[in-house]
Amino acid sequence: MADETLIDGAALAALSLARSGVPCMYGVVGIPVTYLASRAVTAGVRFIAFHNEQSAGYAASAHGYLTGRPGVLLTVSGPGCVHGLAGLSNAAVNAWPMLMISGSCDQADAGRGDFQELDQVEAVKPFSKFSAKATRASEIPRMVFQCLAEAVSGRPGGCYLDIPSDVLRQTIPNSEAEKLLSEITENAGFQAEETLEALEIDKAVSLLRCAERPLVVFGKGAAFARAEDELKTLIERTGIPFLPTPMAKGLLPDTHELSTTAARSLAIGKCDVALIVGARLNWLLHFGEPPKWSPDVKFILVDVSNEEIELRKPCVGLVGDAKKVLNLMNRVIKDDSFCFGRSHPWVEALSKKGKDNVGRMEAQLAKEVVPFNFLTPMRIIRDAILDVGSPAPIVVSEGANTMDVGRAVLVQTEPRTRLDAGTWGTMGVGLGYCIAAAVASPGRLVVAVEGDSGFGFSAMEVETLVRYQLPVIVIVFNNGGVYGGDRRNPDEITGPYKDDPAPTSFVPGAAYHKLIEAFGGKGYIAGTPLELKSALSESFTAQKPAVINVTIDPYAGAESGRLQHKN
User: For the whole prediction, is pTM greater than 0.85?
Assistant: First the structure.
């Protein structure tokens, strides 16, 4: 009888990913995972190869957010695993599902100073909600499926799978591999666990009904839950004004008449009942405390994690998936409806304040300032993005002034079309997020609006854009450094290194657009409205990789953007 065909651990890992429905994987190949990546492609899993595991990890984390299923990162051992921790930690803090798979040293050589040796399971602990190490090839299918399931259970987050190099090489019979894969796929399920039995829906609805100044605040957790339809029903049925957190912009259009984004301080400062959906009362929402919030405000907190409810101690805590919880609330409201009309004093006050603020902002935006400040080019970019129509481009934004101004000026009209520094304020996410957005959302243009400092973290990945011909336009606001170059007072320019560049400054007039041209992409430089409009029109029409280098007055921004009190 002929010998049975064998399959090794690398091929088995690839098949496990494919059978679980993983569409693509991001990473950097090398010893000992190159063969795993190649076999994944053979099995039908697309592999997007990066220059740096940090950017690949950011891509995997964003993929999880955009698709609702874990993004997968593949790294080499030791330093590659450490670099990948940037993405894994980003997924953990933002509550996005992700799986990081790393090769590691031979088990027999552990503790002897093997090539790139590291106790990787221990290293990932602070950032992984579940970790596993395959000690035999036969364990790989179960562990792959378990990690993927854990990543989306409860509060989503990052998981880790360690596969030693000897396990990647180890072989088992094909028949055994098929049996293992069949057993796991039959029992596979990636739905978040439900804890809806004890929800105090009636109490929450009663608080909103009896409120004088209610507000609905929703965050990227609601975006992850695909709760936009339920939010629209709730808000338009009740007439309650709403406020999105930055990455939740677009769940309902920024142009909606009940949006209070332009009256944020009044909305959170005066509301008496706040329904918080898929957003944490962390620094982004001033911890839900005075003086930003009223000391008497009653919070209704909807979160998938009971731990978050226990931490914040709201008036009402509703533990469950945002989409399902809102659907239950809508049923109760439908049976005993109420609505705050447009003439309600609270709604009128917010509308008036918002219109006043928008009017002042538009007056500033209408000015064509050259050399560019931040407002003039941002207005031109806003108009160009809106002209694209639907499907709306996905906007990726990072930087201090660039991100802050973009948050106020750029308009989101569709769900999950804004990616920025997020809960952790992470710089360097830009190109990774762009690549994930292009891969996970085919058919959409991706537009990155980056500060020159933020762009610098991952600028080499423009080669990845060109290599895969992704429809990504990277717009760099070039003001010569972090916050805008050398801003030192004369009395600060002393000492033995006084002739060195300032810690915040870069090479003036850097030709960032030339970088992508080196790889065959299209580069533009723009210092006037006409030049910028022309570059946007041409690049948006082509939908090919491009970098637009926008020259900004180095003194136009503020140090630390809007977080000056933290510096």
Answer: yes
